[in-house]
Design goal:
The chain contains nine helices and eleven strands. By secondary structure, the protein is an alpha/beta fold. The radius of gyration is 20 Å and the shape is globular. 34% of the residues lie in helices and 21% in strands. It has an eleven-stranded mixed sheet with strand order 8-7-6-9-10-5-4-1-2-3-11, with helices on both faces.
């Protein structure tokens, strides 16, 4: 099972970006994890231009206000947190990934601004972080199915979907999905999508016997993916569908009112070179709920890898 000891929450100090902090605080409380709040001093990344001159001194107060907004003064003292100000000219996604790697972070929690369709190919900072992160990334967005209380911060996670393609990345997604389902007594849904045969493929690929065999084989493999004892503490549902993976994942999430989608990060379809985006990119942009992109944990970044990155610790509150 997954254990979260450290969580990193990047913020540009905007109201929308701060919403991710609600999830980070709730998970940090559940797992008794240390929380890092991270802000880049690059003015181009600051949503509110009046905050473009952020300093270590005033950032401590800004971070404190964000935490108090979600927890209140009474619970603030119980939070084990540390604030980071990143100064330099490197790409924000790289600075977030490096800050996470240097501290051995177990999970990054951040907000995504969904771009208009015309700008979709440019991606977002959240998508870029998901490509290069040294650990799993939980991405939230506006107008989604919420499972952390807006005022109470209580977690009400009922249905977790794991997009499962039998790869190592899918195994990591399943580990997170199982851990969260166990922690919050949620239902676990495993979905495998079988691409439809192309029309110019062998005629036998369209045969009913062949299709039925592929379906049953995938179903049997799904049933073996989750250990039997898991059934004691969560309900597991298996589903196999035909079609485009991202379309079927999104459709299933809407139909079943899924609260969280867990999906593998890498593989041949998850690449910045993919002109029209990967399956993971498209799920991130269109999902009706938060998405967890499961990365393998990577070693700390090499000293001096980002020579123009300078970090300052701005605050610390230890319970």
């Amino acid at each position: 099972m997954v254990t979260l000891k450290t969580i990193l929450c990047p913020t540009d100090l905007s109201e929308g970006s701060a919403e991710a902090l609600r999830y980070a605080l709730a998970l940090a409380h559940t797992y008794n994890a240390k929380l890092y709040l991270c802000h880049s001093a690059d003015s181009s990344t600051v949503a509110d231009k009046s905050l473009a001159t952020v300093t270590p001194d005033n950032l401590q107060g800004l971070f404190t206000n964000l935490i108090v907004k979600h927890l209140g003064q009474v619970d603030f003292a119980s939070v084990n947190w540390e604030g980071l100000l990143i100064e330099g000219s490197i790409d924000p996604a790289e600075s977030i990934a490096c800050a996470a790697a240097e501290r051995g972070v177990d999970l990054i929690v951040m907000r995504s601004r969904r771009r208009p369709h015309r700008a979709a190919l440019l991606g977002s900072t959240a998508e870029a972080v998901c490509r290069i992160a040294p650990c799993p990334v939980l991405v939230t967005h506006q107008h989604e199915r919420e499972w952390v209380g807006l005022t109470t911060g209580a977690i009400n996670l009922k249905r977790v979907l794991v997009a499962y393609d039998f790869s190592d990345d899918a195994e990591r997604a399943l580990s997170f999905g199982l851990s969260l389902a166990q922690e919050y007594q949620a239902d676990l849904h495993l979905l495998h999508v079988v691409p439809k045969p192309t029309q110019d493929g062998p005629e036998i690929a369209w045969g009913s016997a062949s299709i039925e065999g592929i379906y049953h084989q995938a179903t049997r493999r799904l049933q073996k993916a989750v250990m039997g004892e898991a059934q004691l503490w969560c309900k597991v549902k298996h589903a196999v569908r035909w079609g485009r993976p991202y379309q079927e994942v999104l459709a299933y999430a809407k139909e079943e009112e899924i609260d969280l989608i867990c999906i593998g990060a890498s593989g041949k379809n998850f690449s910045i070179e993919a002109l029209f985006g990967s399956n993971a990119d498209r799920v991130l942009r269109q999902a009706p709920c938060p998405v967890l992109v499961a990365h393998p944990l990577k070693p700390k970044c090499v000293a001096g890898q980002y020579s123009d990155l300078f970090e300052r610790e701005v605050s610390r509150q230890v319970s």
